[in-house]
Amino acid sequence: EESVSGSASSYVDNSYLFLIGGIIVMLMAAGFCMLEAGLVRSKNAAMQSTKNVALYSIAGLMFWVIGYNIAYPGAWIGGDEGLKFFGMPAMDAFFWAGGDLSVESDAGYAPASDWFFQMVFVATAASIVSGTVAERVKLWPFLIFTAVLTAVIYPVVVSWEWGAGFLDTKWAFSDFAGSTLVHSVGGWAALVGAIIIGPRAGKYFGKQVHPMPGSNIPLAALGTFLLWFGWFGFNGASQLAAGTAADINSVAQIFANTNMAAVGGVLAAMITTAVLYKGKIDATMVFNGAIGGLVSITAEPLMPSMGQAVLIGGVGGILVVLAVPLLDKFKIDDVVGAIPAHLVCGIWGTMIVPATHGAAFMPNEAGDPNFIGQLVGVGVTGIFVVAASTVVWMLLKLTMGVRCSLEAEEMGLDKAEIGLEAYPEFTSG
Amino acid sequence: EESVSGSASSYVDNSYLFLIGGIIVMLMAAGFCMLEAGLVRSKNAAMQSTKNVALYSIAGLMFWVIGYNIAYPGAWIGGDEGLKFFGMPAMDAFFWAGGDLSVESDAGYAPASDWFFQMVFVATAASIVSGTVAERVKLWPFLIFTAVLTAVIYPVVVSWEWGAGFLDTKWAFSDFAGSTLVHSVGGWAALVGAIIIGPRAGKYFGKQVHPMPGSNIPLAALGTFLLWFGWFGFNGASQLAAGTAADINSVAQIFANTNMAAVGGVLAAMITTAVLYKGKIDATMVFNGAIGGLVSITAEPLMPSMGQAVLIGGVGGILVVLAVPLLDKFKIDDVVGAIPAHLVCGIWGTMIVPATHGAAFMPNEAGDPNFIGQLVGVGVTGIFVVAASTVVWMLLKLTMGVRCSLEAEEMGLDKAEIGLEAYPEFTSG
Amino acid sequence: EESVSGSASSYVDNSYLFLIGGIIVMLMAAGFCMLEAGLVRSKNAAMQSTKNVALYSIAGLMFWVIGYNIAYPGAWIGGDEGLKFFGMPAMDAFFWAGGDLSVESDAGYAPASDWFFQMVFVATAASIVSGTVAERVKLWPFLIFTAVLTAVIYPVVVSWEWGAGFLDTKWAFSDFAGSTLVHSVGGWAALVGAIIIGPRAGKYFGKQVHPMPGSNIPLAALGTFLLWFGWFGFNGASQLAAGTAADINSVAQIFANTNMAAVGGVLAAMITTAVLYKGKIDATMVFNGAIGGLVSITAEPLMPSMGQAVLIGGVGGILVVLAVPLLDKFKIDDVVGAIPAHLVCGIWGTMIVPATHGAAFMPNEAGDPNFIGQLVGVGVTGIFVVAASTVVWMLLKLTMGVRCSLEAEEMGLDKAEIGLEAYPEFTSG
Predict the structure, then answer these.
(1) Which residue, among C16, C42, C222, would best test binding to A if mutated, counting the most A CBs under 10 Å from its CB?
(2) A399: containing domain
(3) What is the per-residue pLDDT across B12-54, written as a single tens digit (0 to 9) for each?
(4) Do the domain assignments include residue B428?
(5) What dihedral angle (degrees, nearest 10) is formed by the CA atoms of B323, B324, B325, B326?
(6) Is C294 inside any structural domain?
(7) Residue C392 domain flag
(8) Per the domain annotation, does B168 fall within a domain?
C-alpha cells in the first residue's frame, strides 16, 4: 500500500476543496435558472431556461479560451510565460495537449481544480445579467454579450485583484470571494443592459409601474435555496486551502457566517416589507433578501463574528427592499431584482470590509483593508464595467439590435425565438 | 511546502465530514420546500415556499442565539463555563468576537463545523411542522412557534441525549442521528399544531374525508429526492468522524443502509397501496414511504446489515400507509403526511434499535441500547414536546390567533398574506 | 489525539471520493426525474415522477441482491469465493450480518463505499429506459423490466469489462466511466422497449410526425443541470482513487473535461438547430445536447485535452440533433430523446477513445485501447443487451402485456394507474 506524505495529503485536501466547492457553485447555475424561470412570465420561461444553459456553456468556453489567462497572467501551468496572454498558451497547452498529471503542482493543488473553481465564478457573473434583461433581449446578442463579459470584461477586473494587479498591490483592496469582482461586475453589466435595452413594453406608464408577476414562485424558491447552497462553495472554497487545522477552521467559520448573512437578509427583508406593506410580506423580496445577504458577506466572510454576519446580511436585505422601487422610479426594468441584490449589496459588502479588519481609512504599510482602497476598487470596477458594457451593448444595438420586436415580446420569446412553450398545457396563451 | 501531521489530516477529514454533511442536510430545506409546495393547493404554494425560507432562517438564528448552548451545555468554544447557558456566551463569543481560528480544537474538528452541522438538524425539525399545518396557519404565529421550537424545545430534548444528559447516561438511550430527537420532536410539535389549529375548512364532513390533492406532484417528487440526498449527510456525517479507516468504513456502511431503508420504504408503500387500492399505487404514499423509510433507519443506520435496513425501512413504509387514514379518522389534518413519516416512523426506528445491538431489554452495565431505555426516551420526548408545544400553540391561539380567517383560507394564503400568487397564469383562481 | 498513517489518509480520501461521488450521482436520479417529468405531457407527469422514484429503488435492491456479485465476481468482501455468484453471498454477508468495519480493506477504500458508488450507476442505466418508453408503458411490466435490467443484464455487461472479464483482458476495451457499459446499455434496452411497445397513439400518421410537446420546460432545464452536476461524480469518482497528487490531478482534469464536453454539446446543438431551423434554436435539443456531450466524454474523460473534450462533446451534440428525426423516420417513439443522447453518443464516445490514446487499430501487447477492441465492446454489448431485452420485453408482452389500454393512454397514466393528477388545477383535462 502506498504511503502518502503530509504534503500530498494537504495537496489532496486543497484540491478537494476546489473541486467540491466548484461543483457546488456550478449548481448555482441551476439556482439562477430556477429563480429566473420562476420570476419571468410563462411565455418567456422556456427561453429563460435555455439562456441559462447556454450562458453557463459560453462562460466556460470563453474563460478557457481567453479569460483565465487574462485574469491570472502567468498563472497557467506549463507553456511559455511570454505567450500567456490572450489565450494562446491555453490553446497551446490545453487545446491539443494536457498537462503532466503525475506531479504535484507548486501551487499546492491540482491546476485543473483551480481552473474549474474559477470558471464557475465567471458563470455566476454572467447569470446575473441574464435575469435583469429577461423577457425582451434577443437571444444571440445576449449570448455575444455573455461571451465578451466572460472572455474579457470580468477577467480584466479579476486580474487587478486576484491576479495580483494594482488593486491588490497598491490599494490593499480586499474582496474575499467577489462581492465586487463577481457580483457587482455582473450587476453593472446588467444595469447598463437594462438601460440600453429599455424596459419591457407596458412596464411603465408615466409614473405608474405595472406589475408583471412571476409565473412560478415555487421554482423561484428552489432557485433561492440552490443559490444559498452554492454559496457555501462560493465563499467557503475561496479560502483556497483546507489542508491544515487553521484553514479548515476558517472554512468552517465562513460556512457559518455565510449562512448567518443569508439569515439576516431574509429576516430583514421580511420585517421591512411587513412594515412597508402593512403586514404583508413580499415573497420575492424575501428570496432576494437571502441573495442580498449572501452577496453582502461575500467580500469578507471570514473575519466577521456570526453576529456581525447577521447584521451585514441584514443591511443587505434592507437595501434590496429599498433599491427595487428606486430602480422602478428611474424606469430601469430589472425583471428578477438582480441589480439590488448583486450590485447594491455587492458595493455594501465591499465597503464594510475594513470594519472587521481594524477599520483603516487609508492604504497603510500593514496592507490592511481600508475604506479608500475599497472605494477605489468599487469605483474603478464600476467605471470600467459600465464603460465596457456600454460599448458592447451599443455595438450590438447598432449592428444586430438587442431588443426583440414588439410582436415577439407580446407573443413571448418562447414561441418567437425557440419555437416551443414552457407550459403549453397550463396557459391559454 | 508545509507538512501536515497525521492528526491534522484527521482533523481536516472530520471537519470536512461536518461541512459537507452540513450543506447536504441544508439542501433538505429545499427538499421540504419542494415537497410541501407540491402537496399544497396552488393558492397556498407561494406562502408555503416563503415559510420554508423563513423557517430555515429563524432556526439558524435561534439555534445560534440560544439553542446550541442549551443542547450542548459546556460545549461551546471559549468563554466562561458558568455563563454558557441560555445563549449569553454565544452572544459573548460570537456576536462581536470570533474564536481563534489558528489552533486545533481539542474536539478534533473545527468548532464552527460542528455548529453548522447541528444547526441544519434543528431546521429539519422545524420543516416537519410546516408541512402539517399548511394551508390554514397564519404566518407570524407559525414563525413564532418555529422560533420557540428551535430556540428551546428541540435543544432541551437534544441536551438529554446528545448533550450527555440523563437519557444518555441513565438509560443508555440510543438515537444515532435523530429518529426521536429530530423527527419525532418535529412530529409531536406538528401533531399538537394540527389539533389546536384544526383541520382545513371542508376537509371533513362527518365521516367523509374530502381529498384536497396537491397542486404539483413533480415538485413533490423533487422534494423527495432532495430529502433522500440530504439524508446521506444527515445520517452519514452523524458518525461525527471520518479520519480513520474504521470511521470511513462506518460512514460508508451508513450510506448504504440509509439508501436501502429508503428503498424498503418505497417498495413497501408501493406494494401496500397496490394491495389496498386494487392495483393503483398512490404516488404521495410512495414519496412518503421513502421518507418514512429514511426516518426509520435514522436512529441506527450503522449496525444493521443492508438486509435489515431494507426491512426496517420497509416497515416504515407500511406504517406511513396505515397511519395516514388513521389520522383522518381522528380528523387530524396533516397536509403533507409529515406525522406518519416523521413521528410514527421516528418511534418505530427508535424502538427497533436494540434489535441490532444484542436486543437488551433493560438498561445494563454494558450500556447497550435496550427496549426500556428506548421507550423512556420516546416517552419523555413525547410528553415534553406535547406539553411544551401545547403551551406555545395555545398561548399563540389566545393572543394573536393561530388560524387565518375563513375568507383568507378560501382565497388562499398567497393572496391573503403575501400578496402574490404562486402561479398567476395557470389557475383561474 | 489519534495519529493517522499516510495510508489511512489515502484510504479515507479514496472512500470520500466514492461516497461524495456516489451521492452526487444519486442526484442524477432526481435529474432524470425532472427531465422526464418536464418532457412528458402533464397527464403523465405524476406517473413519470413515481416511476423514477420506484426504478431507483428497484435498481438499488436488485443490484444488492444479485447484480453486484455478477458484475464483480469475487469482489464482495468476506464470504466464500465459490458462492459469490448470483447473490447468495450477498445474502449471507449482508442480509443478516454486516462486515467488520474496524479494519482497512485491502482494496484501499471502504467496501461499502464502492458498492454504493456502483449502485448509483446501475440506477442511471435504468433511468435511461424510463424516459424513452414513457406515456404508454404499463407500470408493473416496466418495473419488472427494470428489475431484470439491474439484476442481470447490466451486471453481466459490466462483468466483461470492469469485472475483469474478456473485454478487459482480451480486447483491451476501454470505457472509463461507462459510455458503453452504462449509457449504451440503457440506450439499447430503451430502443428495444420503444420498438416492442410501439409509439404513442397519434404520434405518427403515415409520414407525418405529430409533435407532443413537453409540459414543463423549466423542470427539464433543472433536470439537465442536475444531470450535468451529477456527471462530475459519475466521471470524476470513476478515477477510483484520490489519495495522491497524481490521482487528484486526474480527478481535476476529468472535472474540467467533463464540463467542456457538455459545453461542446450545448453549443453544437444550438448552432446546429439554429442552422437547420432557420435561426430558431430548439430548447429540448440544447438540453439533450448537454447530455449527449456528457455521454460522449464518459468513455474517456481523462486523456483528452480540454479542446479535445469540447470537440468530442460537440460531435455528441450534433449527433443528438441528427438522430432525433432519424428515429422518427423509423417511427421509433423516444419521448425524451434518450436514445440519441445515451445510445448514439455512447457509441461515439467509446469509438473515439483510441484517438486520445495513441490511436492503435488492433489489440496490442501494450494493452492500449484500440479501434477493433472498442468495436468489439460496442458490438457484443449491443448484441447481448438487444437480445436479452427482446426476450424480457416479449415475455412481458405475452404474459401481462406491456402497453396500457388506449383509454388509459388518452386519459393519461396519472389518472389511469396512480389515481392522482400531476397538476390538477392547471389543466382542464
Answers:
(1) C222
(2) 8-95+109-418
(3) 888 988 999 999 999 999 999 999 999 999 999 999 999 999 9
(4) no
(5) 40
(6) no
(7) yes
(8) yes
